[in-house]
Structure formats: structure tokens, C-alpha cells
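Pilot study result, target chain (99 residues):
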Amino acid sequence: MKRLLLLLLLLFAASAQAELPALIPREVLFGNPQRTDPQISPDGSQLSWLAPDKNGVLNVWVSAIEGASPHPVTNEPGYPIHYYRWAADGKRITLSPRQ
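Predicted structure:
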């Protein structure tokens, strides 16, 4: 019994000296993604996604399906877009109302 108690004491002492892993930076956990919510247009010719603009606000970006000429199609200066979808005609983007 004494040996078991000594073994447990040594085990706890060794684990107490183990280093904790580094914390995950807040920016990684709560910051904007580089790209999110990819969608293909109904006609299959365009790809869209949410990405931050030069000010860090999430906006909708569109490019040709092969990735040529990516450009923002919305310009929200302060309120990020969290949800959008392609209209049935495949030529327009529909945004969700602000909540």
C-alpha cells in the first residue's frame, strides 16, 4: 500500500511539472476567416464566397469558376455580411436582412 501511495505521489509530481500548451490566439478563434461559405451560381459559371475586404469587413466576392478575376460585389463598410445566396436567375446575389 505504501508503494502504491509513493508511486501515485511521484506520478502527480511529474505531471505537475509538465508544461501547458500555448494558448490559441484570439484572432485565430474569433477573427475573420480568409474565405468562407463558397457557392456556385445556378448556371455553374461563377463562384462566390465571403471574405474580408481591405478594412476587414466580410463582403461577398465573385470570380469565374476557374478563379479568374476575383472581385467584391458588395461594399458593406461596417456591418459584415453573414449570409447570402444566389438568386434563381444566377445573375444576382440576395443578402439576408440585418438582425
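One observation from the pilot: Residues 24-95 form one domain. A full batch analysis is planned for the follow-on phase.
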